[in-house]
Amino acid sequence: MPRHLHLNAFLMTTGHHEASWRLPESDPFAHVSLDHYVRLAKIAERGTFDSLFLADGPQLWSSLAQRPAGALEPLTLLTALATATEHIGLIATASTSYNSPYNLARKFASLDIISGGRAGWNIVTTAGREAARNFGLEHEPAHAERYARAGEFLDVALKLWDSWEDDAIVGDKAAGVWGDDAKIHPPRHKGTYFSVEGALNVPRSPQGYPLLVQAGSSEDGKEFASRYAEAVFTAQQTIEDARAFYADLKARTAAVGRDPEHIKVLPGIVPVIGATESEALAKEQELEDHIVHRHGVANLERLLQLPEGSLELDRQLPADLPPESAIEGAKSRYTLVVELARRDRLTVRQLIGRLGGGRGHLTFAGTPEQVADAIETWFTQGAADGFNIMPPVLPSGLDAFVDHVVPILRTRGLLRTEYGPRTTLRERYGLPRPANQHVQPVYA
Amino acid sequence: MPRHLHLNAFLMTTGHHEASWRLPESDPFAHVSLDHYVRLAKIAERGTFDSLFLADGPQLWSSLAQRPAGALEPLTLLTALATATEHIGLIATASTSYNSPYNLARKFASLDIISGGRAGWNIVTTAGREAARNFGLEHEPAHAERYARAGEFLDVALKLWDSWEDDAIVGDKAAGVWGDDAKIHPPRHKGTYFSVEGALNVPRSPQGYPLLVQAGSSEDGKEFASRYAEAVFTAQQTIEDARAFYADLKARTAAVGRDPEHIKVLPGIVPVIGATESEALAKEQELEDHIVHRHGVANLERLLQLPEGSLELDRQLPADLPPESAIEGAKSRYTLVVELARRDRLTVRQLIGRLGGGRGHLTFAGTPEQVADAIETWFTQGAADGFNIMPPVLPSGLDAFVDHVVPILRTRGLLRTEYGPRTTLRERYGLPRPANQHVQPVYA
Ligand SMILES: Cc1cc2nc3c(=O)[nH]c(=O)nc-3n(C[C@H](O)[C@H](O)[C@H](O)COP(=O)(O)O)c2cc1C
Ligand SMILES: Cc1cc2nc3c(=O)[nH]c(=O)nc-3n(C[C@H](O)[C@H](O)[C@H](O)COP(=O)(O)O)c2cc1C
Predict the structure, then answer these.
(1) Fewer CB within a 10 Å sphere, N or C end of chain B?
(2) In B337-440, where do the E strands start and end?
(3) What pTM does this model have?
């Protein structure tokens, strides 16, 4: 089979551009409209995307003045979307720092069953003091600590998902025996962060467990990904950086004894599409014109861990920013933003403009051909197994991608032309169903 | 408006009778079949029920040998059912002992939005060591401690649900102002069990918050219900007990300054329906014949906190059982079972038969007329505001109720004949939408 692109639709209320909500087409209540999301899901299915994805954090992300804040909880929303779609994968973000394994494992198993094997989990450790303070902590746990907890969380979750063998249910009505207790394997886990005794109260799901996705790019993040992740979302500004990241991650994955084909790397791209290049650039400019810069300054100060009022709009970033190692929040995003500003000698105002579209993800404005070219280049030159598509405005930006870029990708043989029979999310990504850790493989 | 019955459909896999799964009609995989639950929800909507309800506990409830174990997580399943139904309320059980307020408040707010105001929360404190051990605890927290935590949990959850005023979203595109930060009220809660700083990341939902339902009947349980509950599920074996419970709960509710009309009492009933009385009794007998008694013995020993092997099938319960005050698990259920056994001088075998149908809820076998009579009597004589309908076998038992008992109740003017326009769950139960604690009522 030819190698195909994997496409994930990263959905965000009225779009990824921070000013998208101000455009005439945008609904200020989109973030709480099931209909809005059903519409987006159907567009993505028309484009034969592998999956949908929703970001998340257990805190209010921004001031209300700034932009749409608050959203439907992703697992809940994706469950509703499961019933409105047939083929597309459903990837929910959930935090290992602010959940307990038993509850979260159940929810993903339930979604996987309800969706016929289409659930995915974007595993995040959640940066920021705001989230910590919603869960009884004074301070954000240290970055290394968060990843240590994440590792143990995954070990426990995998034990829970494997606590039922696939054929534990017998259903012998005559004998009065519903299931086989010998096929239940309670985790009996006692660790540093968690103690979990009993088996899950949900049978093993169609995929065994949700597709495991990861989205942090720090050293700890990449270590974690190499051990557990089957797909990785990442923000990369240049093809050189993306190739280095790709090669690094595949090598790390091989180094821990896994098949590097079993981890798919998906950089984000914000495609601003126009019939002509100048139309695309005008669209980008229109969005930039709607940015309220004072919010952008506050966001940058928070990311860079600077006191309020440190940054000036028409000057460059201060020269004496701390190294990544001193950052306890989102490490890799910090470095990406600082490097981008330095490389292109951007003022704060320009930097805000560049980040406005994709918060550090690559923004690419052009014709459908140009967008398809960029995607093909990255895909064929060792920078990506697919893309996280982040339309600047929704729904129109997703419509544009599906109507104009997808046909080109199909013509070039880079993308499936139809879904074919129903299958699991993991199969869409070309990955095998995981064996149960309690079951010996049978050799012929 | 005439006083109408409130009907709640308590759904449980193949039915409430523990042997229901062994009948020819039953699907051993019903517990993980969305189609099964969609079918049940549609039958209940045909019967113009107020709501559906799913029980829950974060542990495997029984051995697999015994009966269908494990289930879809209720909030997930009800979200899927929200998209398959239009009018019926969706009540999910969730534990205050093994959840954090921020996560749970978000999920209920999200379901309430997605369902157009049809979410309800059956608030439980979760008895049993098994659950505790899935969340890092060695022992079950003491009964009083669980209810103390539940009270604080509710206070925090209510603060979170009120952390957005209803009109916090402005959507002023021209000015670039999406929302009004002055209408956000972070809880800043620091208590015994929880510290929660920030506002919820979901706007206030159609109902303000889910309908609050409670299902424990101990002293602490009733105290809790009188403060928070808008509907109460309860297991009552006789009309005398039910009337006493009803009067007690209404009085307690009035005593804390609430309108006693704003707490609806719904005893459970397991209706075994036949065209003739003898047909109904034969159906009951058929179910009893399918009971595997050794499982029943084990369950009773666990409820009564007796060592394994203490009970003998053809003898009565031991005389020296401890008082309710010594029980840390499900207190009111304990007392109900012991009193039932003593009152009717039941052997363990007979007791298991009596509990097989409804685990302590009233089982009533008869013709549709007889079932309707029993319901009418309890409803008009101060024992109930409605009923928790617990069909012994599903779907057939719910079909029988809706096809044969519901028309009689409608003819007698006790039940709505149609839903009318879409409305919230709270309105179905005749309750007012709660005001936001941060908003002063406006007097004309
Ligand atoms: C496409 C993409 C989506 C992400 N979504 C989330 C998210 O929803 N929630 C979250 O807490 N982190 C999310 N992250 C990860 C944060 O960027 C991450 O917490 C941060 O980079 C810290 O990880 P690191 O320090 O390992 O880089 C996402 C990252 C990427 C690339
Ligand atoms: C109809 C009904 C349904 C219930 N469902 C649950 C449930 O799903 N999960 C749970 O932990 N307790 C549930 N309970 C409550 C338990 O019976 C309760 O935990 C037990 O009675 C302890 O409360 P108490 O000690 O205040 O009586 C339910 C009770 C009733 C009457």
Answers:
(1) C
(2) 362-366, 386-389
(3) 0.95
Length of chain A as a residue count: 444
pLDDT of residue A158: 98
Instruction: Give per-residue pLDDT as tens, B29-66.
Output: 999 999 999 999 999 999 999 999 999 999 998 889 98
What CA–CA distance (Å, rounded) separates B113 from B169? 15
Q: Among A113, A184, A292, whose Cβ lies nearest the Cβ of B32?
A: A113
pLDDT for the residue B370: 98
Given a cut of 60, whether residue A22 has pLDDT beyond it is yes
Place of tokens 């595993």: A123
3-state secondary structure string, B305-367? CCCCCCCCCCCCCCCCCCCHHHCCCCHHHHHHHHHHHHHCCCCHHHHHHHHHHHECEEEEEEC
CA-based end-to-end distance of chain A: 26
Of B134-143, B169-178, B346-355, B372-381, least confident by mean pLDDT is: B346-355
Contact between A68 and A30 (Cβ < 8 Å): yes
Ligand 1 contact via A249 beta carbon (within 6 Å): no
Shortest distance, CA A239 to any CA of chain B (angstroms): 35
Angle (CA) B145-B149-B151 rounded to 5° is 120
pLDDT digits (tens, 9 = 90+) for B72-86: 999 999 999 999 999
Average pLDDT value for chain B: 95
User: Helix or strand or coil: residue B258?
Assistant: coil
Q: What are the CA-CA distances from residue B267 to residues A185, A336, B236 (Å)?
A: 37, 60, 6
* Residue A146, number of CB atoms within 10 A of its CB: 22
Return residues 64-123 of B near A (CB < 8 Å): 64-73, 75-77, 79-80, 82-84, 98-100, 102-103, 106-107, 109-111, 113-114
Give the pLDDT confidence score for residue B443 in this predicted structure: 62
Query: How many Å apart are CA A443 and CA B3, to the nearest integer?
Result: 68
Going by C-alpha positions, the residue among A229, A227, A159 that lies closest to residue A195 is A159
Ligand 2 pocket at CB < 6 A: B 55-57, 93, 124, 126-127, 215-218, 220-221, 233-235, 268, 330-333, 388
3-state SS track over A31-66: HHCHHHHHHHHHHHHHCCCCEEEECCCCCCCCCCCC
Higher pLDDT, B296 or A39: A39
B195 to chain A, any CB pair closer than 8 A? The answer is yes
User: Which domains are seen in chain B, by residue range?
Assistant: 6-270+381-428 (3.20.20.30)
Residue B405 vs residues B268, B376, B399, B412: alpha-carbon distances, Å? 16, 11, 10, 11
DSSP letter string, B129-149? HHHHTTTT-SSPPPHHHHHHH
Residue carrying the six token digits 């809820």: B361
pLDDT tens-digit map of A336-366: 899 999 999 999 999 998 888 888 889 999 9
* ipTM for this model: 0.95
Name the nearest CA neighbour of A285 among A363, A344, A339, A390. A363
CA atoms within 13 A on the CB side of B282: 6
Helix (H) / strand (E) element for B183: namely none
Q: Which of B37, B42, B72 to mutate to test the interface with A (most CBs of A within 10 A)?
A: B72
Q: Closest chain A residue to B94 measured between Cα atoms?
A: A103
Is the predicted pLDDT of residue A1 greater than 80, yes or no?
no
pLDDT at B141 over 70: yes
Cis peptide before B203, with omega less than 30 degrees from 0?
no
* pLDDT tens digits for range B183-213: 999 999 999 999 999 999 999 999 999 999 9
For a ligand 1 pocket test, name from A77, A217, A264, A361 the mutation site with the most ligand atoms within 8 angstroms of its C-beta: A217
Q: What is the pLDDT of residue A442?
A: 64
